[in-house]
Amino acid sequence: MSLISQWVDNTLEATGMDAVDALRAFFLLAAATLTPTPRMQTISISIPTPLRSRFLTYGPRATSASTSTSSAPPNAQNPSDESKGFLDYLATWQVPHSYFTHFYVASVLSSVFWVVQLLSRGVMFQAITSRVSEEHQRRSMSLTQLVICCALLAIQGSRRLWESFIFSKPSSSQMWFMHWLLGLGFYLAAGVAIWIEGSGALLTNKLNIAHLQMTNAPSLRTFVLIPLFLVASGLQHDSHHYLFSLKKYTLPEHPMFRGVVCPHYGAECIVYLSLALLAAPQGELVNKTMLSCLAFVAVNLGLTARNTKQWYAQKFGKDSVQDWWLMIPYVY
Q: Low complexity composition bias: which ranges (predicted)?
């Protein structure tokens, strides 16, 4: 057994789960740090305010958050000067906000890497599939589904990478280094999640170039969901282009932003929802691994959208966004 196979095998053995369940657990545990707060009827991070104000905001929102925290009454802030000093020290572990580009580099490289691994049945492919249970192998995606979904995820990652270059502006904004690490982990894990529930078909029939030729008529599911993916992707691109075109931070006036704080976040959730439905194994309504991936995306972006709405309210007045939806009209 190679060192890579042994490392993967030992890691999964330590979790007591097979590879599919371990991936689902990763996404859900990451999302579990963000929980609904019924009293506030919104999304709130499930850690104390001193941590949230230091580590969970970034970009222009971080400035507002730090100002708000510093102006709060002493008793409402930190439990002690000692803990405050420690938290302030951790908060200094920052990386440039431009490191967001690394997420999409990781996504594209992951897509390329796994195409090679799946076609060649490489070491990493064998190491992971050897840890997929027979139950998960029996309920497998078809090879056609797998090829389509891998291609769509590669398109999403490539588009976001392209946008991160052409829509970038000089900025001194920073983010906490753990955000950066978690983001890298998410995109690398998504590269595995998109195909792992097709491991049964991959082990039974070797994937080759011929499977890239779509000769059969598309199913109703494919006929509906691929256009949904493309529309959501296009709407997200248009939102990013509009935000980039703004000369300064102003309240968005584009039709897509009419009554919605972050429509581009809603579009990204629809992108991952369409992938979760497209990748559903035979006899299943949805791909549960990609659904877990969507849960992380939705909760993470939901929190950021809420912080953006608060920032808009502070900058442009509470009434300016009072009745605005956060991501998707009439949904959230």
A: 62-72
Residue 325 lies in a domain: no
Beta strands in the chain (DSSP E): 34-37, 42-45, 94-96, 174-176
DSSP 192-239: HHHHHTTHHHHHHS---GGGG---SPPPHHHHHHHHHHHHHHHHHHHH
Instruction: Return the higher-pLDDT residue of 51 and 225.
Output: 225
Please, are residues 91 and 175 in contact by the beta-carbon 8 Å criterion? Answer: no
CA distances from 220 to 225, 232, 278, 323 (A): 8, 19, 11, 37
pLDDT value at 227 more than 90:
yes
Count the neighbouring beta carbons within 10 Å of the beta carbon of residue 88.
Answer: 12
User: Which residue has tokens 């429509």?
Assistant: 263
Task: Tell me the chain's radius of gyration from C-alpha atoms.
Answer: 21
Is the residue at 305 inside a domain? yes
Provide the domain limits for residue 121: 17-31+95-320
Residue with tokens 């959208």: 305
Tokens 């980039």 correspond to: 244
Task: Tell me if 78 is assigned to some domain.
Answer: no
**Hey, what amino acid is at 9?**
D
Q: What is the pLDDT of residues 64-95, one digit of tens each?
A: 444 444 444 444 444 555 555 555 666 676 77
Q: Which amino acid is at 115?
A: V
Q: Give the tokens for residue 90.
A: 């951790």
Query: In whole angstroms, how far apart are CA 120 and each of 20, 125, 201, 322?
Result: 21, 9, 15, 54
pLDDT of residue 47: 43
Q: How many structural domains does the chain have?
A: 1
What's the full length of the chain, in residues? Answer: 332
CB 312 within 8 A of CB 261: yes
Domain assignment present for 216: yes
